[in-house]
Amino acid sequence: AHALYVLATPIGNAADITLRALQLLAMADAVACEDTRNTAQLLSRYGIQQQLIATHQHNEREAAERIIARLAAGERIVLVSDAGTPAVSDPGARVVDAALEAGMRVIPVPGASAAVTALSASGLVNDHFHFHGFLPAKAKARDSELARLSRLDATLVLYEAPHRIVETVDALLRVFGPARRIVFARELTKLFEQMHRCALADAPAWLAADANRQRGEFVLLIEGMPARADEGEDTLDAERILGLLLEECP
Ligand code: SAM
Fold first, then answer.
1. Which of 97, 104, 129, 143 has its CA 20 to 30 A from that of 197?
2. Other C-beta atoms within 10 Å of 236: how many?
3. Contact at 8 Å (CB) between 220 and 206?
4. Which pTM was predicted?
5. Where's the Tetrapyrrole methylase domain (predicted)?
6. Residue 104 and residue 72: Cα distance in Å, rounded?
7. Residues with Cβ < 8 Å from 155, sequence gap 6 or more?
8. Which of 214, 219, 221, 222 to mutate to test the pocket of ligand 1 (most atoms within 8 A of CB)?
């Protein structure tokens, strides 16, 4: 039936694609994608030829209109992003929203997501997690966001780019304190995949010990605020955060 299929693609290892995803990619009328070269490469690996519709953050509104017109004409359109699950720290949400508003059927096709992949092998308490994705690029905005996030009783999930990893980890240590654990999930499913878990106190030294550890794509997981921190620790935590917030006041 005509519908918009929101379809997850691999986050590194091309074999991490489901049979259902391949079937849908092959039989769709068109594939809306972030970067046509990237998606063409994935499709050609599986011998699939498709019409591609460029749908990136700069043209999402116009692309949405074209996609909705085609859905209304009875077509099946697959929406993908460059890697992982569309609309999660990726374009796609606007197209999905517009399609739903226009009364179209939207069907999710699950697969890889860097956040959930990292969480699954982190060994942290994952009953609750808070997905934040990318932090603000500017230091002040980043630190006040972190101060807020540091109060959560849930594992924090961040996405980070290699050129900011050292600064971000320094900021995490400053705001969250030395005791909580961090997990570096680097290059998941790829050749140089690495998962490393340590106390935040030891995180800057671990990164600095080998330049390769600062390369590639990262998910950072940080343990939530201890639920039963004794009062003393809690006060210290509050004082540190208050201090950080005051530093930012004009
Ligand atoms: N939609 C994707 C998903 O479902 O995970 C996320 C896309 S976002 C633009 C890209 C960021 O996701 C990277 O900067 C990195 O933080 C994270 N990421 C994607 N692939 C990864 C991988 N193989 N290993 C570690 N992190 C990854």
1. 143
2. 12
3. no
4. 0.91
5. 4-203
6. 8
7. 119, 122, 124, 125, 126, 128, 129, 130, 221, 222, 223, 224
8. 219
Cβ distance 111 to 21 under 8 Å?
Answer: yes
pLDDT in tens, the chain (250 residues): 799 999 999 999 999 999 999 999 999 999 999 999 999 999 999 999 999 999 988 999 999 999 999 999 999 999 999 999 999 999 999 999 999 999 999 999 999 999 999 999 999 976 899 999 999 999 999 999 999 999 999 999 999 999 999 999 999 999 999 999 999 999 999 999 999 999 999 999 999 999 999 999 999 999 999 876 554 555 566 667 677 777 766 6
Structure tokens at 25: 């990619």
